[in-house]
Design goal:
185 residues; alpha+beta; three-stranded antiparallel β-sheet; 5 helices; binds 1,4-dihydronicotinamide adenine dinucleotide; binds flavin mononucleotide; FMN reductase (NADH) activity; FMN; EC 1.5.1.42; FMN reductase (NADH) RutF; Flavin_Rdtase-like_dom
């Protein structure tokens, strides 16, 4: 269960809301991060604490042995308690055409409305798997640590669903960009 994994480490000293180390302003950091293009993902969970999902760009591969990804989740998000209690999640990598779905899962919309906007199935963990995702990683959360405002969740993939989308989706400069696979020669 995620009780043991999430927030198992003491949170580092609270960040000063205005100033970051070396006097960097939070806005400077965000403006810089906006230049770091990333895939967009909808992270979902289901279990005793209910169904939940949110949009995340802070996702990356950690190791392929065992197959492990990390997901960074803000502890102040409304979905945090569900992820903490369920201990399982699915990373659904979005494809071209998913821009409005990404915005819907990006905050403030009631959970049922978020899920009503797309078709879902499930695999081993029971977390919702987006039907037309570029790829989905069904995972158990095996470890978590706190860093500033976020928990970093280490997620071991137990099954994978590869989708057929021809074009991917990247979030760069606070906008979505569709990317096509290069033509075969
Ligand atoms: N890692 C995160 O928690 C992220 C949160 N967001 C949320 O979505 C909203 C809209 O984002 P943008 O349009 O890109 O404008 P923005 O100016 O708020 O963010 C620019 C970039 O800074 C980073 N960032 C934003 N909030 C962050 C946070 N709390 N912790 C760590 N990195 C963060 C992300 O790389 C983001 O693309 C943000 O205000 C934030 O609430 C967006 C991207 C990542
Ligand atoms: C493009 C984009 C990327 C985001 N990436 C993250 C992320 O990596 N981690 C995170 O905790 N929140 C991220 N968010 C914000 C969450 O999606 C949002 O806080 C979440 O839906 C919870 O909102 P709620 O508290 O209204 O339910 C992102 C939002 C957008 C639009």
């Amino acid at each position: 269960m995620l009780h043991n994994a999430m927030a198992s480490n003491p949170a580092p000293s609270s960040p000063n809301p205005a100033l970051l180390p070396q006097g960097l302003q939070k806005a400077d950091y965000r403006n810089a991060m906006a230049r770091l293009g990333a895939a967009v993902n909808i992270i979902t969970t289901d279990g005793p604490a209910g169904r939940a999902g949110f949009t995340a760009s802070a996702v990356c591969s950690v190791t392929d042995e065992p197959p492990t990804l990390l997901v960074c989740l803000n502890r102040s998000a409304s979905v945090y308690p569900a992820f903490k209690a369920n201990g399982v999640l699915c990373v659904n990598v979005l494809a071209a055409g998913h821009q409005s779905l990404s915005a819907l899962f990006g905050g403030k919309t009631p959970m049922d409305e978020r899920f009503a906007a797309a078709r879902w199935s499930s695999k081993s963990t029971g977390s919702p798997v987006l039907d037309d995702a570029a790829v989905s990683f069904d995972c158990r959360v095996v470890h978590a640590t706190s860093a500033g405002t976020h928990d970093v969740l280490f997620c071991e993939a137990v099954s994978i669903a590869i989708g057929g989308a021809a074009q991917g989706l990247i979030y760069f400069d606070r906008r979505y960009h569709e990317i096509a696979a290069p033509l075969q020669h």
